[in-house]
């Protein structure tokens, strides 16, 4: 049994005072507002919310921070720098980098991350002795950082609509065919702290018949399925030229859309795309800090929500690791695009960063008995949040707090971060060492 006592906690979407949270093993067994703390309870100051969920990550992109953000260039030029980093990683180097990145996430309040994983093989495309060596490096990294991992095994079969195979850096991303992908993905087994899922990299990288096979694989296993959708106008144009349809329409025809599916980005959509996504309750993961860093555009978040698509957020390329920033950017970017305010409530934005994201990752996280005991505490007395009250706590968390205001993180009833510091990993030191190693390898 472990016990916690929150100064304030978001329980059933209401901020409650003096909340005692009792846990047995990794699950909550009791939530008691307005209760005195037990003598042995760990005190959690500020606002306690369900653990933050990072619904879209490419761990190796962390090596690009501040290196690709300077100067001009578009997504496709940025992609060349990304390919260079991808080519420099082996399982050991990837493990050290991912361990540091996941620890950075933990320190930012993230208790679960969906890793959109397609860095599978050796740089020349041949398999490691263990075909899932790179995936196992991520699994070990997340376990050591103390966060839950949903490993979305990415299917990546071609370089584009007009490029049937893979060349250059992309060779390590792909399996021989979708059957080889499925056999390899099946070999990596779930274990405590790990959920297995599938990813269709994009409609340009996976032909329609293979999309159907990946969707069937996920459906048979009740696994999450994620897919990059309409991140770039150029992708939409190429798709329409080749198929006469939008990427969303292609995915719909292949049976990919549905309540277990999450479309990542969904930035450039038609009205019919909105209807298809919302009508199938396909979720949408928005990654605003990456989308603005790459000049991708602003997605129709309010229209998606109105159509029926649950929203979640991800840090994607890790321009920053701050899900509170991602959540508020959903609203603030919409204000810039529409010249109007009030598209999303603070509670809805916080749900996108917490419970809705956890659901898309396959984790049952909530502040209620029976749920996983994953908790994040947000300081309400920092220079950014000072003056917060119970009535304004959620708005302060969403519109003012940053990752630096995360004080405590509990995963499965076990403290991972206390007083803003990771309990087992020197995060700045681990990042500096891993990033220096990658930079040296790319020279």
What would you say about this model in short?
The protein has 443 residues and is of the alpha/beta class. It is 36% helix and 22% strand. The chain folds into 2 domains: 2-50 and 371-427, Urease, subunit C, domain 1; 52-361, Metal-dependent hydrolases (TIM Barrel).
Structure description:
There is one protein chain. This protein is α/β, with parallel strands linked by helices and 443 residues long. It folds into two domains: 2-50 and 371-427, Urease, subunit C, domain 1 (Roll), CATH 2.30.40.10; 52-361, Metal-dependent hydrolases (TIM Barrel, Alpha-Beta Barrel), CATH 3.20.20. 36% of the residues lie in helices and 22% in strands. It contains 15 helices and 16 strands. An eight-stranded mixed sheet has the order 3-2-1-4-13-14-15-16. The chain has an eight-stranded parallel sheet with strand order 5-6-7-8-9-10-11-12, sandwiched between helices. Helix 8 (271-279) links the parallel strand 10 and strand 11 (283-286). Helix 2 (91-107) runs parallel beside helix 3 (133-145) and helix 11 (323-338) crosses helix 12. The radius of gyration is 21 Å and the shape is globular. The termini are far apart.
């Amino acid at each position: 049994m472990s016990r916690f006592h929150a100064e304030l906690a978001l329980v059933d979407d209401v901020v409650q005072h003096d909340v005692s949270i009792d846990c047995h093993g990794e699950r909550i067994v009791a939530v008691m507002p307005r209760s005195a703390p037990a003598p042995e309870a760990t005190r959690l100051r500020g606002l306690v919310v369900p653990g933050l969920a990072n619904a879209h990550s490419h761990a190796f992109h962390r090596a690009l921070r501040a290196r690709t953000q300077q100067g001009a260039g578009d997504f496709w030029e940025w992609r060349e720098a990304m390919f260079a980093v991808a080519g420099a990683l082996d399982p050991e180097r990837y493990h050290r980098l991912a361990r540091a990145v996941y620890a950075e996430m933990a320190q930012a309040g993230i208790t679960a991350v969906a890793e959109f994983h397609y860095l599978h093989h050796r740089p020349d495309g041949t398999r490691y002795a263990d075909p899932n060596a790179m995936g196992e490096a991520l699994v070990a990294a997340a376990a050591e950082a103390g966060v839950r991992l949903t490993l979305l095994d990415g299917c990546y079969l071609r370089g584009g609509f007009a490029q049937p195979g893979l060349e250059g850096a992309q060779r390590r991303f792909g399996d021989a065919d979708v059957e080889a992908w499925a056999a390899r993905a099946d070999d990596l087994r779930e274990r405590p702290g790990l959920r297995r899922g599938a990813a269709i990299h994009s409609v340009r990288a996976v032909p329609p018949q293979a999309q159907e096979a990946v969707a069937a694989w996920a459906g048979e296993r009740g696994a999450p399925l994620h897919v990059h959708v309409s991140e770039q106008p150029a992708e939409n144009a190429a798709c329409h030229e080749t198929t006469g349809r939008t990427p969303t329409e292609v995915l719909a025809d292949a049976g990919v859309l549905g309540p277990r599916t999450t479309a990542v980005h969904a930035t450039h959509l038609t009205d019919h795309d909105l209807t298809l996504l919302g009508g199938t309750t396909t979720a949408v993961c928005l990654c605003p800090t990456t989308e603005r860093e790459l000049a991708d555009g602003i997605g129709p978040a309010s229209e998606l929500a109105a159509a029926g698509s649950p929203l979640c957020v991800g840090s994607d390329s890790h321009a920053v690791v701050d899900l509170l920033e991602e959540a508020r950017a959903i609203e603030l970017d919409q204000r810039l695009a529409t010249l109007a305010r009030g598209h999303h409530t603070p509670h809805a934005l916080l749900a996108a960063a917490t419970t809705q994201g956890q659901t898309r990752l396959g984790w049952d996280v909530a502040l209620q008995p029976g749920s996983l005991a994953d908790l994040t505490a947000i300081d309400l007395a920092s220079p950014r949040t000072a003056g917060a009250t119970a009535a304004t706590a959620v708005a302060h968390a969403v519109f003012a707090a940053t990752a630096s205001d995360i004080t405590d993180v509990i995963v499965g009833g076990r403290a991972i971060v206390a007083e803003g510091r990771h309990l087992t990993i020197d995060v700045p030191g681990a990042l500096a060492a891993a990033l220096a190693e990658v930079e040296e390898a790319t020279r």
